[in-house]
Amino acid sequence: MVTSFHMSLPCLSVKETKSFYTSIGASVGRSTQSWVDINLFGHQITFIKAGKFNFNSPNYVFEGKILPSFHFGVIIDEETWKTIYVKLKKENLELVEQTTFLKDSAGEHASFFVKDPNDYMLEFKNFKKVEDVFTS
Length: 136
What we know:
Blueprint: E1 6-11, H1 14-23, E2 27-31, E3 35-40, E4 43-49, E5 59-62, E6 65-68, E7 72-75, H2 78-90, E8 95-101, E9 109-115, E10 121-127
Parallel strand pairs: 1-4, 7-10
Antiparallel strand pairs: 2-3, 3-4, 5-6, 8-9, 9-10
């Protein structure tokens, strides 16, 4: 059975949120002036206009890299991952540079983070072997 997740988050601007997510290949589902459903690679994120969300959370260190503890993301194929990375890099957005984690180990993956217009950190992962997503 193939499943997908749903998440609902507050946003500052429905218009800017739509623009950002469609620029990285997501599509827009149902929407009104106060909320929008985003199809992020088969997963539904509902952004509801509610003002700034103050989520102060400490970062953590993984393999010597400082990463945001509050983030969400998608696991995508290598070609899509590279295309999105190049596009976002050119747009001069706040990016956490691409890194390979768990090199030569089970779970090896490339990753980068970008901040969306609502200050959420969005991670893009590409596993060397897709079957290693949950391998330890």
